[in-house]
Amino acid sequence: MLWDSQLIQKYNLAGPRYTSYPTAPQFSTDVSKMELIGKMLEPSHSPLSLYFHVPFCAHLCYYCACNKIVTKQYDKGTEYVELLGEEMRLRALMIDQSRPVTQLHFGGGTPTFLSEQNLETLFSRIHELFNLVTDGSQDFSIEIDPREVNRSKLEVLRKLGFNRVSLGIQDFNADVQKAIHRIQPLELVESVVNDVRDLDFNSINFDLIYGLPKQTLSGFKETLDQVIALSPDRISVFNYAHLPQRFAPQRRILDEDLPSPEQKLALLKLSIDTLTDAGYVYIGMDHFAKPNDSLTKAQQEGQLQRNFQGYTTHAETDLLAFGVSAISQVGNAYFQNHTDLSLFQNCIENGQLAIMKGYISSQDDQIRHDVIMQLLCHNSLNSRDIEHNFSINFREYFEKELASLKELEEDGVIKVYYDNNQVDLEITEVGRLLVRCVCMAFDKYLTNNNSFSKVI
Questions:
Q1: Model-level pTM?
Q2: Residue 137, exposed/middle/buried by CB under 10 A (0-12, 13-18, 19+)?
Q3: Preceding peptide of 358 cis, ω within 30°
């Protein structure tokens, strides 16, 4: 991958991450809950992906923009697990329970906030209501706060069937950790990693963030070297989006402590250079993986997919998401649960699904979805696939969008190949960091009023 500072500065615009299309700002309370439930009731034999959102955190991390509840009252987990169990029961009544669950993910918040007994109770309920695949092909993952887990809890997670873990690292530098209110020494993380490997989990992911307060090139280089020494299978290096007007905890971060835009770009370049020099493959959208990782192989074979959990190897699944704020996708319908815990709880306790808003995709939405996902996952677009799947003339259908790509083409971000009515797009090596800008050309809902982070 090539680095062009001028191009990056020119196209470093605000835009969606495209874990879905249409993106969440298009979800609406105007969509009838009964209409959304009707979509869930439609017969399907597609595999299932399950997501569980656990909103509780014992510690407040100042940078965090997740839907969370900070509390030291661990007994709240018991009541929440009961709500999840009832929500699962309601959903399970609407689907064919023989459909295989090939992917499962616990996110948060802090999923390991839940006690060992809570985790066992929740998983027992999942087994009762869903058909979990256990032949080795499954992908069952959980996000772990190293401060909220020990050997005993890791043993329980492995026994329950989790085979992947993701650790929130952010930065090992002591000054940065103090500035973001997340103190977790290297020795603590190293101990957790050793336990995870000893218990034979299949894969370890680390989450890092660049652009945090007090970060310097030398300090982050040391973090990257320490991460490489711990040798996780996958690494995500996310851009910190400082939006204190939207996320109250970020108001505790001083503007003067943040890296300048130039320093922030330098941190990203440092990350890419250091990780690729160490042998990691840049998958795209902040994600890196080892050459033998299933994500890398899926991309090489044209099988990589993207959903609300990011990049995935599990294609054509319906996503059922449980818990406060969780977003489901079933067929061409999206629906999001209430983001307020009391409203979520009230619905579930009254025997109702806690749907707050949703969206049902038109054929045009589905066409644009497939275009955007091809670009994000494969760094290219084959119009023949789109034309075959939707019976359209791609060049005519996207005449305006293709015209809008001219400047990106002239700047060397993309290459466009025309063969009569056929069109192929290719993201160049210098354009890989700017793939979201290419996707934005096909987003008919994008306006200047949308509040998104910058693409880099």
A1: 0.94
A2: exposed
A3: no
Nearest to 228 by CA among 172, 179, 286: 172
Partners of residue 14 on adjacent β-strands: 454
Cβ-Cβ contacts under 8 Å for 231 (sequence gap 6 or more):
none
Select from 365, 286, 358, 291 the least CA-distant residue to 329.
Answer: 358
DSSP E strands in 74-138: the ranges are 100-108, 131-132
pLDDT score of 309: 77
Question: What string of DSSP letters covers 214-241?
Answer: T--HHHHHHHHHHHHHH--SEEEEEEP-
Residues shown for the chain: 456
Which residue type, as a one-letter code, is found at position 31?
V
In angstroms, rounded to a whole number, what is the distance separating the alpha carbons of residues 250 and 362? 37
Positions of the chain with pLDDT under 50 = none
**Contact 111/150 with Cβ under 8 angstroms?**
no
Rg (alpha carbons) of the chain, rounded to whole number: 22
